[in-house]
Every structure is written in structure tokens, then in C-alpha cells.
Amino acid sequence: MSGASPAYNVEEMTYALQTANAKFLMTLPSSMDVAVAAARKAGIPKDRIFLLEGNVDGHTTMNQLLEIGESYGRGGQVSSFKIPKDKQNKDVCGLLSFSSGTTGLPKA
What we know:
Number of helices: 3
Order of helices and strands: HEHEEH
Mean pLDDT: 89
Oligomer: single chain
Low-confidence stretches: none
Largest sheet: 3 strands, parallel
Strand content: 5-15%
């Protein structure tokens, strides 16, 4: 998981998505223009752009994602992540944080 500044422009967001090897993007309606353009440049399909709140036609909301997950029932749920026996916390990246990018592109 990686957070991103809502002030990022398309170039900065694309860089962050590519650096994080993002597979999906969660955003807000107010950031859709940048999110959609950056996701396209980073190779993330439109159906993998989700809304944390609000509604935008053609995009799945967080509430809809939860409903979809619940519809699979107990047998259709993914197991909780557990650190592999041969790894430690420091070996597994759970959050990739970026700087604000005040002197160029954001830094991971």
C-alpha cells in the first residue's frame, strides 16, 4: 500500500504508481482527472480505479467493493496475510511512503 498526495500532478502520480508497482488505485472524486490519467500511463485498467467515497459513473465505490466481497460468503474470502516463516517484518513491505516531491519527483 502506498499513499499519495492529492496535490500530485499526472507525472508525479504516474511515477508513484510505477515505482510502487501498483495494481489498483483508490481515490476521491476530486482527484479523478489526475488519477485516471496517471493510472492509464502506469498501465492500471479503469476497472481497477476505486472510489474511497462519493460516486463517479463507471467506477466502483468502497461500499460496492465491500458488498461484492460479502457476496462471496465465508468460503470466498482471502486468508489474512501472515509473514512467511523465513521472513521478518523488515523483509516485507506493507507501506511504501513517498515524499511530497518539492524538489522534483516524489521520493520513495
